[in-house]
Amino acid sequence: MSVETRQSPPTFRMPAGFNGLLPALILIVLFFVVPVLALLLRSVTEPEPGLQNYAALLGDGTYARVFFNTFLVASVVTIVTVLVAFPVAWMLAIMPSALASIVFGVIILSMWTNLLTRTYAWMVLLQRTGVINRTLMAAGIIDQPLPLINNLTGVTIGMVYIMLPFMILPLVGTLRAIDPMTLRAAALCGASPFQAFRRILLPLSLPGVAAGGLMVFVMSLGYFVTPALLGGTSNMMLAEMIAQMIQSLLNWGLGSAAAFILLVVTMALYALQLRLVGARRMSGGI
């Protein structure tokens, strides 16, 4: 007597831990995916369906100038921030822990200060009758006040000051993870301080430089307050143009297209950074 075995139909099981991730996924969809899709929809439907908004942004010389200013300012700010933040991060990594905690607290405290307040403080310092120009003139270094505001110089100074903590934090973590014995071994083998920095310290710190540099560059691309207050009309950046299009001109289609282009560029840069870091790790592992 044969007994027939019945196979139960396969049941779909949720991956382990999915229930815990569900609230976060819902928030991401509601507050990121849906707004981005709405932005994309407006950029191709207003004032009429088509790609005329993107054609206007990419084909007009005035808008091209704004894009150029945005990437120029973001690049200059990122480079200067890396050059200033690296020695500060190295100092924090090698100094005694008690003193490092105090300096680290001062850096963190600057991040908690209101952004608008810090920008207005730089306006006072950088103006023609500000403290910096008066000090330089009193010391006999200059005869006439330097133009430090309403130009690229003022924007760079203000944004570098604001971006420094975001560059220092990942760099400190990377530099503290480097074994000091590697630098001592290089010195014992006859390497000069510059050679030890160029061939050991700098390559080992590149992940921190890449992470902080990407963060600073991406944040600089979309910055609004500091460039608007410290820069001039000839140095308008993309975030200022988007705000002007939407708030003053009520041109939602063109503003949405500009914002979507900025988002695509940001995501592309992030993907490129992940690819470069991943390739470096694979080559290092091999």
Automatic annotation (TrEMBL):
Quick one: where is this thing mainly located?
Answer: membrane
Superkingdom of the source species: Bacteria
- Keyword presence, Cell inner membrane: no
Which InterPro entries does its entry note?
Answer: MetI-like, MetI-like_sf
Q: Tell where it localizes.
A: Cell membrane
Sorted alphabetically, the keyword list is: Cell membrane, Membrane, Transmembrane, Transmembrane helix, Transport
The record's section on PANTHER family has: ABC TRANSPORTER PERMEASE PROTEIN, INNER MEMBRANE ABC TRANSPORTER PERMEASE PROTEIN YDCU-RELATED-RELATED
Concerning SUPFAM superfamilies, the annotation shows: MetI-like (SSF161098)
Q: What is this protein called?
A: Spermidine/putrescine transport system permease protein
User: What membrane topology is given?
Assistant: Multi-pass membrane protein
Q: Which family does it belong to?
A: Belongs to the binding-protein-dependent transport system permease family. CysTW subfamily.
Give yes or no: UniProt keyword Kinase: no
Residues annotated as transmembrane = 20-41, 62-86, 92-113, 154-175, 204-229, 249-272
Domain (ABC transmembrane type-1): residue spans on this chain: 67-273
